[in-house]
Write a structure and sequence with these properties.
Layout lengths: L23 H55 L1 E4 L9 E4 L1 E5 L5 E7 L4 E6 L5 E5 L4 E2 L5 E2 L2 E6 L3 E11 L17 E7 L2 H4 L1
Antiparallel strand pairs: 1-3, 2-9, 3-4, 4-5, 5-6, 7-8, 9-10, 10-11
Length: 200
């Protein structure tokens, strides 16, 4: 009886396929793309950080400036015996770097703008001046000339009718960071007040 002949299994086995890796050119291209994306991301983060710092400084300075302006106008409304006076009684309007007056507590107060230090100071008679607001760079006219921040309008020589305060403040921070840019805009604060004796 004839037996079917079985073919012996082949001893050859197909080996694992070899995988092709990135060549040098492809690696360089991938690195270049990655570097470009990282640079763009860092540039966007830097711009966002600078914008945040500038906005924070402006808002902080504006808030402090408004509080100081409100306080000064309140003192002017309730004050008496204002100065300085015009040198000529016929002059009714003068500008000055300072204003002085007597408060309701019978204290003589001088508010002065220090041009060199860019400071607005508050001083009681017989005491050292204290800082009221810093970064006060001053307001310029159309010709670029600094003008005095206090405008005093008098009637009958020595009776103050109205006082106007015009301040330009440059936002500043206690902590300065190297990455931070100088992009904060200057803030202008203007206010007028009449002494109560004149208003009523």
């Amino acid at each position: 009886m004839n037996r079917p002949i079985r073919n012996a299994p082949s001893s050859r086995r197909s080996g694992p396929r070899s995988r092709r890796g990135f060549n040098l050119l492809e690696v360089l291209i991938a690195l270049a793309i990655t570097a470009t994306l990282l640079t763009a991301t860092l540039a966007a983060l830097d711009a966002s950080f600078r914008a945040y710092q500038a906005t924070t400084k402006e808002v902080s300075t504006q808030s402090i400036g408004r509080i100081v302006m409100h306080r000064m106008l309140t003192l002017l409304r309730t004050g008496t015996e204002f100065g300085p006076f015009p040198t000529d009684p016929r002059i009714t309007r003068i500008r000055s770097d300072f204003i002085e007056f007597r408060t309701q507590d019978d204290e003589v107060v001088t508010i002065r703008w220090d041009r060199s230090e860019e400071l607005l100071t508050y001083q009681l008679e017989g005491q050292a001046p204290v800082e009221l607001l810093d970064g006060v760079v001053g307001t310029t006219d159309e010709n670029g000339v600094l003008i005095e921040p206090f405008t005093l309008e008098y009637e009958q020589g020595r009776r103050l009718y109205r006082a106007t305060i015009d301040l330009t403040v440059d936002p500043s921070d206690v902590i300065e960071l190297q990455i931070e840019g100088d992009r904060a805009n200057s803030i202008r604060l203007v206010g007028s007040a009449m002494p109560r004796l004149e208003a009523f």
